[in-house]
Amino acid sequence: MSSSDSGSTTTNGVHQSEESSRCFSLAEIQLATNNFDDTLVVGRGGFGKVYKGFIDNGATVVAVKRLNAESKQGAKEFWTEIKTLSTLRHPHLVTLIGYSDEFGKMILVYEYMVNGTLADLLYKPSRKRYGPDFYHLEWDQRLKICIGAARGLDCLHTEQSVIHRDVKTTNILLNENWIAKISDFGLSKTGTTNQTQSHVSTEVRGTFGYLDPQYFLTRRLTMKSDVYAFGVVLFEVLCARPPVDFGVEEEQCSLAMWAQRCIKQGTLDQIIDPSLSGEIPANGLKVFAEVANKCLHNHPNGRPTMAEVVESLVLMLDDSQGNSPGSKGIISKVFLRIPSIVAKGIDLKWNNWMICGFKKGFPERFQIEQFADTGIQLYRKFSLAEIRAATNNFHEQLEARCNAVIKVYIGDIANGNLKVSIKRIIGRTSSETNMDQFRNEIQVLSHLRHLNILSLIGYYNEKNEMILVYEYLAKGQLYLHLYPTNNEPLPWEKRLQICIGVARGLQHLHGGTKRTIIHQNLKLTCIFLDENWVAKVGGFEFSRMLPENISSTNSNTFVADNAGYMDPEYLASAKLTEKSDVYSFGVILLEVLCGRKPMIMTRDEDQVNLVRWFKTNIERGTVDQIIDPNLTDKIALECLKEYVKVAEKCHKSSNSLCGKLHMKLPCSLLGDLVLIRPIHSALPRVKWRSKAAVHDAT
After folding, report:
1. Is 65 annotated as a binding residue?
2. What burial class does residue 281 get, using C-beta atoms within 10 Å of its C-beta: 0-12 exposed, 13-18 middle, 19+ buried?
3. What cellular component terms from Gene Ontology apply here (predicted)?
């Protein structure tokens, strides 16, 4: 391997460092490929050939892409790919290991993707390569692949402002676990953060059949150009045919146009892959086609973002796997996002449904037909008798937790077939204040359906009683698993998994609905865990739902027991923004890392406030000394560095030089956390006596 003595060089504008891509000598490449042996060729195209290779004395299998001198992908594209992939790390983006440009050659070395391209699996099956077991991709597997590819593109758009410009099934690779990864960044461009209006003016490049017509006509490249191409990919997955096929009738030549025509005519079921017969639920086919069709909208502004595509596909997969309502009946046709926990507890009598609009006071009763026309989310209204039966008349043995304001019981509904959590408000606060918070929680939750947000099933509010019924979460509050209890200490990997879940829930609040929702009371006791340790954000009684296109509001609400989590800038200005939640999330990250509460009044003055103590130790380079003792020597050092960076970002002042970054934190934080997990898994645990290492990384 060749490298500079300084450990950092700049070639053709690409900064190469020890942490960047590895520079191979041509001799190393020849050794890895047995001097470019044709028997090792696993792919070829206009760019050249791809070889299966072996590096590190045969210990690592790689894919070696050798560009032809005659290839349209010249030096510019070669260095663009190196520059782009050297700054990107994501589970759904192919990893660039290194390159070689010795003696004028242009060679790229990637992680080896054993299951090839999505195109190969859809309509170019090879018995020799895959074997008979891999001829048929089942529908659920196809959905998972689409979700993975969509997540990769979403990362490019939201985290790096990169437009791929050549999205297609031959650039979606699959590893041994069928995880999809986006590849081939030679044509990529750095765009802007605005996904709808902003654009890059450029010569038209890409692949025929996937090209966005608006980009072709105007030369204005936007992230929505990638969305258009992904819509074509979705139809390829559904129909198992290439985007352009000159061997069929003229009207069927373009897959995108043909599929859109069939949707209008109601004949889409006639063009799907015959091998999928009977696998796709009728409603699933309809929704999948609608998502793909929206991606192909004539106007870029009419297309969804990749984040929205991901959300839709995930909901489809849940439905396909039986984790959401079936396709029968008016309710599931109108409310595709009702989670299974709600569907199971529903009594399909119209007089057991309530509408949560709050325009004329508290919920009014509607018949189901009227309700369906409104499109407003619904909840079941329980009778007091049902609540008493579910809790054995509020028996103390079923009491899960309580404080001065509430009591929470574990109950059973639906003839004992569904376990739920029942929250009974008992506080001495004025009944008007309690009712406002009660209504607010229902109204906010009526706009939210997400894996990482607590699901509300129903409520009761008569005879001075205010009761909420939620899905039951077997592991309870995160708080109970971090602080001294009889529970086993949470391992680091599980803590990361939980933090990622919370970040996803928070991201959905801030950008997953038409109206921004600010939690305003985010803390450890508002994070719940189901039986699989999936984190769910709850506690929405103080949340604020902002008008459309508004990102901040004035608020003088001070949550009494939230002092250690509250954003100092909010306290100073009374201006509530998404950043206030991000600050609170940063406090949670520190609690998870340090295993201590945000405020401990009995500590020395410099240790009372967790955030301030953390910053002090950052400056001293002694972060390793404040970590939860249960995690000693159990976190990879590189993982610790990255985690500390994320926590620091959460507490950056918007007046600092990092203000612009701070505005994007909900999305960037999620990406950072997701990328920390493989770092932790891949690297060895080492002793932390490395003040400089942790300090320098931050």
Report:
1. yes
2. middle
3. plasma membrane; plasmodesma
Q: Is 340-471 CATH 3.40.50.2000?
A: no
**Average pLDDT of 336-350?**
35
Residues in the chain: 698
Mean of pLDDT values over 242-263: 86
Higher pLDDT, 686 or 627: 627
| Tokens of residue 220, six digits | 């204005």
**Per CATH, domain 482-697 is 1.10.260.40:** no
CATH 3.30.200.20: which residues of the chain? 8-111, 340-471
Q: Is 180 helix (H, G, I), strand (E, B) or coil?
A: strand
Measured between alpha carbons, how far is residue 309 from residues 305, 324, 568, 619 in Å? 6, 18, 36, 42
Say if residue 301's pLDDT is above 80.
yes
Out of 61-65, 73-77, 220-224, pick the least confident: 73-77
What's residue 663's pLDDT? 36
pLDDT band at residue 184 using 50, 70 and 90 as cut-offs: confident
Q: Which residue has the tokens 């109950």?
A: 411
CA–CA dist 635, 486 (Å, integer): 23
Residues in Cβ contact with 199 at an 8 Å cutoff, skipping those fewer than 6 apart: 191, 192, 220, 221, 222
For the domain spanning 8-111, the CATH number is 3.30.200.20
3-state secondary structure 130-173: HCHHHCCCCHHHHHHHHHHHHHHHHHHHHHCCEECCCCCHHHEE
pTM: 0.48
Which CATH superfamily, name and number, covers 118-320? Transferase(Phosphotransferase) domain 1 (1.10.510.10)
